[in-house]
Amino acid sequence: MTGSRAWRLAWCAAGPLLVGCASTAPPPPTSSSNYLHQYASAGGALDTATTTWDTLGKGLVTTGTNTIANEAPIDAAYAQALSTFSNELLAIQFPASTKNDVHNLVNAAGAVRNDLAGVASGAVSTTQFVNDEANLQNAINIVQHELGLGSSTPIAGT
Question: Which residues, 6 or more positions from 153, have their beta carbon under 8 angstroms from its beta carbon?
Answer without folding.
Answer: 20, 23, 24
